[in-house]
Here is the input.
Amino acid sequence: MSSIPYIWYCKLDKMAKTKYLFPYNSRFIGIALILVHIPIKLLWDAHYPGGYDHNNPTSPGSETPLFSPPHLFFIGTTLMVLVGLFLIGFSKEKIEDEQIVQLRLDSLRWAIYLNYAILLFSLVFTQGSDSKHILMLNIWLPLLFFILRFQWVLHKLNRSAKSDETKL
Here is the structure.
């Protein structure tokens, strides 16, 4: 640090903390992906009312081809939800300061702890095909926990800041 002026060091440090986040507007793309997913999934379920059992097409003895329409639909809708949640969760806030970075880190840690606790509990007390469904849920559940926790803590922080302003 002695060879880099302090002002430059602070700018570099701030850039490093937010360098891996998407721009603020990316969250709206994520919301749109999730909202588009809902009617598509409802139309698919209406077209296949009995539901489609998503078998693993690569397992030995499987009758399902790898790129069958139901399998491609599953991959497409899963990717829509995952990318949407990822963009929502990892987009910058309008004002991204050190407190927001710390809240984001704490929320991510809390989400991973909660997810693994639920995952361990579920795997111990379920068997058979339920375990497969639990593992499929585990794909998007940590992101959902992170987003909910982060937005809730951010809401509490903003509400307390507004109440402090009205007292002054």
Summary: The two ends are 40 Å apart (CA to CA). The chain has two domains: 22-91, 95-168.
